[in-house]
Amino acid sequence: MSIRFTAKARRRMAALSVVAGLALGVAGCGGGDGEDKKPQTSASASGSGGSDQRAQEGQSEEPLIELKGPDSLLLQITSAVRDSGGFVTVSGTLKNDGGDTVNVPAQLSGNETEIIRNGRSLGGATLVDSQGKKRYYVLRDTDGRPLTTTNFPAMKSGESLPVFMQFPAPPADTTEVTFQLPMFATAPIKISE
């Protein structure tokens, strides 16, 4: 009987140690920079993308380009900014320019199973560097979610939503790329620093 009691106690202690270790690991990954008052949101968790303040800046700027898409959708790109981390964030507004309510087409997510699994997004967008002969796809997080605006609601007539897409940055000497999104026209855009 004492052997059974000892074995149960050891299992409980091992389980308690594992739980405590996991709790410490999660707490250790929590940041620790003293700004625990504000909850962190991931880029894909929020519909308008909350990961990069620059993605929301410039929404009132004059668009760099306007691309017409299906069902009277209009994509206005207001900025394409290269950051020091090796990324390019393309920001803008998706607008329903028609008279009827429109659902954002699933084709804008692209055709990759991993991205489609995470709901409607702009995951099918690419940047083409014709100088370097490379195509850059929307980045994904460690769970396979695209680093772009996701989960679009039905858009009423005249309604617009801020959008963003994050790509790997082309080489520093590449300042112009071609932006492509399924079902939309393509256009060159300039990358700013």
Description:
By secondary structure, the protein is α+β, with helices and mostly antiparallel strands. It folds into 2 domains: 31 residues; 138 residues, Immunoglobulin-like (Sandwich), CATH 2.60.40. The protein is built from 3 helices and 8 strands; from the N terminus they run ααβββαβββββ. The strands form 2 sheets. It has a 4-stranded antiparallel beta sheet. A hairpin with a 4-residue loop joins strand 4 and strand 5. The protein is globular and about 40 Å long. The termini are far apart. About 18% of the residues have low confidence.
Number of helices: 3
Strand content: 25-35%
> In one word, what is the shape?
globular
Mean pLDDT over the full residue set: 77
The percentage helix is 10-25%
- Rg, alpha carbons: 22 Å
Spans of at least 5 consecutive residues whose pLDDT stays below 50 are 26-59
Give the N-terminus to C-terminus distance in angstroms: 72 Å
CATH architecture of the largest domain: Sandwich
How is the main sheet built? 4 strands, antiparallel
Number of strands: 8
CATH topology of the largest domain: Immunoglobulin-like
Main-sheet strand order equals: 1-2-3-6
Structural class: alpha+beta
